[in-house]
Amino acid sequence: MTTRILIIFMLPMLALAQRPAATSTVDKAAMNASADPCNDFYQYACGNWTASHPLPADRSRYGRFNELQEHNERTLLDILQSDAAKSNRSAVDQMIGDFYASCMDTATLAKKGISPLKPELDRIAAMKDMDGIAAEAAHLQRMGVTVLFGFGATPDPKDSNRTIAGLRPAGLSLPDRDYYLKTDPKSVETRQHYQQHLKNMFQLAGDKLEAAALKATMVIEFETTLAKHSLDRVSMRDPNKTYNMKPRSFLAEKWAAFPWDAYFKAVGAPAFDTLDIAYPDGLTGLGTEIGTQPIDTWQAYFTYHLLHAAASELAQPFEDEDFDFWQRYLNGTKEQRPRNIRCVQATDRALGDLLGQQYVRQVFGADAKAQITSLVEGLERALGDDISTLRWMSEDTKAAAIVKLKAITNNVGYPKKWRDYSKVTIAADDYIGNAERATEAMVQQRIEKIGKPTDKSEWVMTPPTVNAFYSPQTNSINFPAGILQLPFFDSQRDMAVNYGGVGSVIGHEMTHGFDDQGRKFDGDGNLRDWWTAHDGEEFEKRASCVADEYSSFTSVDDVKLNGRLTLGENTADNGGLRVAYLAMEEALKSNPSDKIDGLTPEQRFFVGFAQVWCENVSPQAARTLATIDPHSPGRFRVNGTLQNMPEFQKAYSCKPTAPMVRPQACRVW
Questions:
Q1: CA angle 134, 136, 138 (to 5 degrees)
Q2: Nearest to 327 by CA among 620, 5, 11
Q3: pTM score > 0.85 for this model?
Q4: Which of 495, 494, 354, 527 shows the shortest CA–CA distance to 426?
Q5: What are the mean pLDDT values of the chain's consecutive 10-residue runs (669 residues total)?
Q6: Under a CB-based contact definition with an 8 Å cutoff, are residues 105 and 313 in contact?
Q7: How far is 605 from 25, CA to CA, in rounded Å?
Q8: What's the start-to-end Cα distance of the chain, in Å?
Q9: Distance between CA atoms of residues 257 and 273, nearest Å
């Protein structure tokens, strides 16, 4: 299902409704007890699960998260169906209920066809010059259609208490710039399929075959030029490379023909004198190559991006064609999720804090929040002890690291302040209008932050999300209510498995504050080098070991992981699991545990960690994810991490020559 790109909430994946009963220990049914844990621990912990859970037809990737997602979706579906049917409704009931109902009203969508987009298509067709192009770019971006570049509000990396304007490369359709630039057979094949998809979409929009084919060629050539002037993903991960404060006049110097003042007014930006430009050199390409494109090329480019963004909100043929390329071909998904589930997801993306409030009231109690807070405090102590005993780090840098650790803010369950939707109008018979109005309100709320103090309480995930995140510029770790359930956590479950599950997640997020990105920010969230030169060199040496290790893993066919792209997540996996293990060992001193089902607490800890990552992935999705995803596949999140842990090798009595024992183990934290 196509999503408007500025709505970056992840899909909800978990709830209490009809969830599996709490278990006292690991999931033995998921394990392949015949596998040697010292040869392939992922197969040992997950082998039966992966064998008994082939990819469903509507998935390109299916794992333990997705099992729980389905329970959560039923909870959210019950809420929305109830709110859609109520006769006496609150304002919140009306908004989320009618949004869901408008999505489900396929008869109205079919009747309207492409007509809801006609005013915007007419605006695109009426463009005559760069003034019109700038006005339309701003208009589309306010609708959540990212064209040409990304512009918005961002905390100042070097003064996190203030919010500034930021400009970044954007506007490509294919997942990464390399899809346009590589010349290997698979990349060429992908571009051929993409060109056919473009042609099909233009024909659905009313173009004749010849005109549609011409427009498809224009779009690919335009986006290829954009790709040449985009920054690679690894470089985009380096905050020192992407922090470039420039005066507003710098834009006119690089692209004089673009009416920047008119654009900023049209996009709704407040006044500002300086902005952070992630890739200044790319502006030269925009001015010299992109800016000289003929008007009909601009029209084709804008039109496709609009059609792609709105495809799931239009009649069925548009949604089917969009799915056929982006999901079936590119990711190997055979069929779409059921309509009602797609509409649950769409409501969560558009009105996530409204739906999230009802979710929290139903499934998230104060006891869970208190227990997780206690776990967090225990892991913070363990990480502090770990930092204090590092042999490679000087006392000065250790002291600064402890200061940063103690300054971390822990947010559990849901944001302190809910997002305001009072300016959004939702109608039961206007799905595309609802999506546009919700997106525009969100864009406006964000862009108005330019020039104001940074709101460090804002979340970027909805409460039902099964995920967690660390924010370097607020120095905070955030745990939505959705992840604080099985298989990560259950108050009635064996402590060792809880530490392996949610404990490793907590440790992971804490360690993000000290990975290759996070370590460049101080405890106040400012981009500042607080390391001694020697300690910085020692960190980079250890980080390179992790990057090289994961670059040796093959994702699919001839595609290897990019250890530099995944470095932050791999560092957090390795460090976070060790911190969770240390916290568990400390807890066991006052609450010792015997074997359960023949497994020691240490063995149960490692199985609990591994079983979170049981999954199956289509070859197509594995190829795509290896290019764009900063996370490693589940198998390597497990085996890659455990190969570096002497504690694991001791727990399972692995011989020094076993595959799960890395001779030159990597360790940062």
A1: 70
A2: 620
A3: yes
A4: 354
A5: 31 30 74 97 98 96 88 91 88 95 96 94 97 97 96 96 96 96 96 98 97 98 96 94 96 95 97 96 88 95 98 95 97 96 96 94 79 87 95 96 94 90 95 96 96 90 88 92 84 90 94 96 96 96 97 94 97 96 93 90 97 96 95 97 97 97 95
A6: no
A7: 9
A8: 39
A9: 19
Contact yes or no for 535/399 (Cβ under 8 A): no
Find out whether 40 and 506 touch, Cβ atoms under 8 Å: no
Q: What is each CA distance from 319 to 56, 325, 339, in whole angstroms? A: 20, 10, 11
* CA–CA dist 23, 603 (Å, integer): 16
Q: For the chain, what is the total number of helices (H) and then of strands (E)?
A: 30, 11
Query: Shortest CA distance to 644 belongs to which of 627, 625, 664?
Result: 664
Q: What is the DSSP letter of 174?
A: S
CA contacts within 13 A on the Cβ side of 30: 23
Task: Determine contact, residues 148/287, Cβ cutoff 8 Å.
Answer: no
Beta-carbon neighbour count of residue 390 at 10 Å? 16
Beta strands in 170-299 (DSSP E): 245-247, 274-277
Q: Token pair of 61, please? A: 């990737």
**Full set of structural domains in the chain with CATH:** 28-76+350-651 (3.40.390.10), 115-313 (1.10.1380.10)
- Three-class DSSP category at 92: helix
**Which residues, including other chains, have CB under 8 Å from residue 656's CB and lie 6 or more apart?**
663
Alpha helices in 525-600 (DSSP H): 533-551, 567-590
- Assign 63 to helix, strand or coil: strand
C-alpha to C-alpha distances, 447 to 178, 267, 269, 280, 450, nearest whole angstrom:
30, 9, 6, 21, 6
Token pair belonging to 120 = 């915007």
**DSSP at 453:** B
CA distance 271 to 336: 44
Separation of alpha carbons 359 and 465, rounded Å: 11
